[in-house]
Design a protein that fits this description.
Layout lengths: L1 H18 L3 E4 L14 H4 L1 E8 L8 E9 L5 E9 L4 E11 L8 E6 L2 E12 L4 E11 L5 E11 L6 H13 L8 E2 L4 H4 L21 E5 L5
Antiparallel strand pairs: 1-9, 2-3, 2-9, 2-10, 3-4, 4-5, 5-6, 5-11, 6-7, 7-8, 8-9
């Protein structure tokens, strides 16, 4: 009986760990994945709700919403709010997007979280600025058997809390054009009765740092729903 309990505990522990890891695919990253042409930096800024995503190590909770705040040189400060529904907590994170090459037409950003550069770049693959956007990243890797593989990160954002079937079909088509697997996308909870009507306004909570610093991550109890 004791052994069974240990096995069950180990399974739950491993499931929790891998649920927050990046997705792994065979082979190297897709080559020459194009980003948005003639990207309008100012128009892209503002609030974006997460609708779908790959499992990842940065944002793991539900009700996720990001506010892109313009910085110099076409960079962004991201204020990210997300909620753990079971624990009834809200987490606020500050990320910084630093454009890889300022004058480049490629919309590729280095990501800084907790004042450290993340392994992934985030590429803005597509946006119509008013409905949805697709942000993706990929890094090459080799497993323990020295086999080529890659890790990918993918976010589908919307200006509203929902996307209709037509928009979702368009997203799948765009991802297919880039050779990116949409079947692994997971839905992100955004129902107002669960998440409330919260947008990433970067509120200051008691116990959180006052300054907007990219190393900030703060989790506090919160009231859910409406």
């Amino acid at each position: 009986m004791e052994t069974s309990k240990k096995i069950i505990f180990l399974f739950i522990f491993l499931s929790a760990v891998f649920a927050e890891d990046e997705l792994i695919f065979d082979g190297k990253c897709p080559e020459e994945v194009a980003t948005v042409d003639k990207f309008d930096y100012e128009t892209f800024s503002g609030v974006w709700y997460e609708i779908k995503r790959y499992p990842n190590t940065i944002i793991t909770e539900e009700c996720a919403v990001a506010r892109y705040i313009p910085l110099k040189y076409n960079n962004y400060n991201l204020t990210y709010l997300s909620r753990n529904i079971e624990k009834k907590t809200t987490t606020k994170r500050q990320l910084v997007y630093d454009k890889e090459i300022i004058k480049s037409n490629d919309i590729k950003y280095d990501v800084y979280f907790k004042c450290k550069k993340d392994n992934f770049q985030h590429h803005v693959l597509y946006t119509d600025y008013v409905t949805f956007s697709i942000v993706w990243g990929c890094i090459d890797n080799k497993n323990d058997e020295d086999k080529e593989e890659n890790k990918q990160r993918l976010f589908v954002y919307s200006r509203t809390k929902t996307l209709d079937d037509e928009a979702l079909e368009k997203i799948e088509k765009k991802l297919a054009e880039h050779g990116i697997d949409h079947s692994q996308l997971q839905n992100v909870e955004q129902k107002i009765e669960v998440c409330g009507d919260v947008i990433a306004e970067a509120p200051v909570w008691k116990g959180c740092p006052d300054e907007a610093c990219n190393e900030m991550e703060c989790t506090v109890p919160t009231r859910f729903g409406i």
